[in-house]
Amino acid sequence: EAVKSLFFTKDNFHLFLSSSTHISAIKKIDSSYKYVDAEFIYKDLKYQALNTKESYGYLKKVDIKDLKTTYISPYDILLINGTPNDVPLCQGIITTDFQPPLSHINILSHNRGTPIMALKTAWQNPLFDKLNGKLVRFTVLTNSFSVKESKIRPAKKFWNKSLPSKTISLSANF
Prior knowledge:
Blueprint: H1 2-6, E1 15-17, H2 20-29, E2 35-37, H3 38-41, E3 47-51, E4 54-62, E5 76-80, E6 92-95, H4 104-112, E7 116-119, H5 126-131, E8 135-140, E9 145-149, H6 152-162
């Protein structure tokens, strides 16, 4: 409301809401509030490369509503049907929701050096069902992606270079 009051065309002011959580919240506050969502912004796109990287991991299909109660390993590549607010350390993310460049999971992926992409049809894609639970090489490119079954040897070589080799313990000063 504070930003809207400063906006020069108040009647055309729309808030951009990037997740279903935000949309649900605004509807509870004021169902008449004007907003646009990622579906509106990215309506004609089917694929979005967010962090163009390559990784190895076990493809794990996790329903967004089960994400908080599902164990995610640092060796997993997540396929999620939605946009989580946070994700644990993993080897990559495939989501069905398009993301703004500064979305939290996109920034996490950039900081961690892990690939992330959005593919609207990923949840129903038979390729991902076939590879669910299997070790894969996951590559995100600007205009395409690749998910192929892999052997353990190249995966271990990759993990040895990319994962931390020792645990860092921080002490608290109370």
